[in-house]
Protein 1
Amino acid sequence: MSENTSTETIWLTQDAYDKLAAELDHLTGAGRAEVAAKIAAAREEGDLRENGGYHAARDEQGQQEARIRQLTDMLRRAKVGEALADSDEVAPGMEVTIAFFGDASDTETFLLGSREVLGLDDAQNVYSPQSPLGSAILGKRPGDEVTYQAPNGKPIEVTVLKVQPFKS
């Protein structure tokens, strides 16, 4: 596997990296202060066992800290580069069309990447490079055929039909 297709590396454009870094800065600065203020205000209301506002603020704090850990890890593993413009090789950030079992009428088009990194909603079909399908097609080109193991143990054959940079 080439360096460009490592499942440990997260490839980001400079713009995506800057957005994630700004989110991390906000969460570790003003975001933490806001949640701490909510917790302090709720504490002043009295009995913490029956204080819904306190428990909600603590839940928010836990979610925020999890996002901070996630962002820190993503930025630590990030490699910043230009979007892959002219490549026909399957890599994170590419939109890929595959055919199942060589059947050109049974196709699927998806983004290979991370919904969280790209800030996508659930409408976009996304596969992680670490998924069985994603790891099987990394580095492949149109016309390449691969077989991967589905989570249920069955082998699934796919043919890469088309690879293009993702346009958000």
Protein 2
Amino acid sequence: MARSAALKPELVPADSKPTLDAFTKNVGFTPNMMATFAQSPIAFNAWATLFGSMSKALDVKTRDSIGLAVSEVNGCNYCLTVHSFTAEHMAKLSADDIILARKGHANDPKRDAAVQFARKIIETSGKVSDADLNTVRDAGYTDANIMEIVALVAMYSLTNFFNNVFDPDKDFPAVTPAGSI
């Protein structure tokens, strides 16, 4: 059960309303996470700006795969439902690719290096080894790309932590528990 209620539209702070309305228009409904997050215009709008900027980083399959890997490590069931849905419907990842991403891998060798690196970042609190850096560089990622991977890990962790704290009601299809995949 949610620890903080999603705001009804008439209760959304004025400074959050334009951002929330834009997400609602793009998604087709107002996700509970966003309606809850909108209670703090400062935090919500800062996250939305980061989200908008990071939507230009790497490619959608890699971004969604990183989101799945990070959300799995952080144990965020809400984000796993969202990323599984977007990975299937927007990134066009197969069900097997989604499960593989949750486990920190990908079928594509370059994407696999990025997802493994992202998982190492979250598992080590960023204290990756030189070998980890060399592996992702050898896969074809520049230092600028690696910075984008780090930023994606941080952005996904922010929503993971938010959702783990406030536990909004799930509004995307449920996913198989991690222990079952």
Protein 3
Amino acid sequence: MSVRALWIISHEKGENVSIRFSRRFPTVEHRAKCLAGSLYVPVPEESTVLQLLLTELGLADADKPYVVLRDDCLHHQRSPALELHVEGKGVLWPVLAISEGPLILACLPLVEGPAEPRPPLASLLSVSQGLTLLAGLQTFLLGSGSKPDSEGLASRLAMLPSVLLQVCPLGTPLDVPQLGAPAASLVSTPAGTQKQPAWKTGLHRGRAVVNVALTEMVRSMQYGNQSRQDLWDVYGTVTCKCEVEGVLPNVMVSLTLPPNGSPLQDILVHPCVTSLDSSILTASSVDDCDGSAFSGPYKFPFSPPLEPFRLCSYTSQVPVPPILGSYQLKEEENQLRVSVTLKLHESVRNSFEYCEAHLPFYNRDQMGGVDVKVSSGQLEVSKEKNLLVWVLGQKFPKSREVTMDGKISFSGSIPGPTDPLCTDLTAYIKLYFKVPDITLSGCCVDQHSVQVYSSAKPRITTSRELQSKEYFIWNATGAAPVSSGHMML
């Protein structure tokens, strides 16, 4: 739900009616224009909105006994959603308005869908959320009573731009001001002359915490055939969550590699990074990797947004994949003979959060008899899905090698699942695993290297992990795709 426009109107008796505050959100208005197409009705000028809204609420032309837009019997007020008839343009709907004491608060929510036919109010989440936003702002402006002193109201109105940055950034309501909280405790004006950037929706108040998480995804296509080259690559991301006081706090995160580690390549950074060594950005996976390549440490100074964000991403060339596999599938008298060997490379820590191997069998009848043994872990059989799930658990045996061997018959009367690629002996194993506190490239974030330039000393936490992503081992005795385009992102 988003808001196209918001108005705060003063209509106290004995004073001129006026718009005390208004805010429009151009990005939301652009979405409204795209959704409505030829039926789009733009938000008119403030003076026009004020006149139409007062007329609709019955607060204008009180001395006139009959006003068409107010009193015509064909006009039905749709509470709480009002219609504003803009001359020559069309109808603005639904305009939400609440009146309390000296103020009228109104907003125009975005209707997510075509303008015609008009959707029923009960189906519009934006109506209830818009009313919640107005009620929260009403309590913030008026405090515990319905008629605050003029100075208190003026002070709260002056704070509305900062309040909306927090509760309704870019026109999307996320929260409402805390009910009954004093105005001064909700928003503090940025210290000094630093201007708060538009992309930062608020200021953090409270304990400083910086969390840095490094995740590497490894992808692999293994064929078990000397005529085809196995493929694998590593893609890493660094995600940060920085809760640090200040308008533009400065933080620096450094990535380090082991002495024999391959340099990081294809590095992309978040726009909040303030400066970067040019040698970090020039390394590309298509270039020849030589001894002159930059090998760190990779320093990223930045001024963080409030929400979690991806600080950077990279690729890395590693000599071997973490798990090497061999898969052989053969037809034997209306049965399939299955033989699998998986070996964990010695450089990878033998401590998984989880590790599973999935063996699907497509374009066949439903599984019948399954006589398959595994040297380690547990085997789960799903005959409805023609799927074997080999749960390897959290550790490989001391030898770092596991095997599967046996026979499968397909004697069911119901066809199993189909796949246009995997026909006859074209089949694969797909591995799913996660290894905590390790990366395949050796890249890490040293907790002591994270620098935060802030008045408060933050609590800093770092983590890293290795995960599988599109990790396939193809049947060596059948056809298999030569490139990774079909299975890998």
